């Protein structure tokens, strides 16, 4: 999620969309990524996972430098690609840790957590297009992220292990998602883009999904005791 949020915030700054909030998100996300990476390197349960984390650490060094550099279309294009590489390796680590846990219901935590990433990915590609990075790949990636978010949200709402609290919070996310799709459906029509609204609603979705993921993790911890 943080890899996507950093690129999104960088593009918000480049496109002059809510720059004060964008800078705040960029700085906090960079700090959080470094903190989480340090914790994971300490936690690494086996050599394979540690090796993958060290690859991410190397990728992160250059990625961080670009994130803190002056924004430009040339840099933004490459930064989008670098964000994809960092995301791919980070997701690989999540998958390996989930597999290592050997706990069946750990998958629902991973799905919920991935929704946070997808909310930022949707906003990232929307803002990239608004900024002028209008390639077929960006449009296709945006549409794919929207579809993945929709599918996973339905899957989470149907999960039999949901508590009343989780179900209620998922309904709120679903309502916000329905609202977001009003702006999303116009993508990529020229003159009908609403990047500020998309940036705000996806950020709210992120916050709500973060809480839901925490609740799923809390349930999982109880099962493992």
Reconstruct the topology from this structure:
Layout lengths: L1 H13 L4 H25 L3 H21 L5 H29 L4 H26 L4 H22 L6 H21 L10 H30 L1
Helix pairs in contact: 1-2, 1-4, 1-5, 2-3, 3-4, 4-5, 5-6, 5-8, 6-7, 7-8
Uncertain runs:
none
How many structural domains are formed by the residues?
A: 1
What is the CA-CA span between the terminal residues?
Answer: 28 Å
Query: What is Rg?
Result: 17 Å
Question: In percent, how much strand structure appears in the residues?
Answer: under 5%
Name the structural class.
mainly alpha
H/E element order: HHHHHHHH
Shape: globular
Overall pLDDT: 93
Number of helical runs? 8
Beta strand count: 0
Biggest pleated-sheet summary: none
Helix percentage range:
over 70%
Short description:
The protein is an all-alpha fold and 225 residues long.
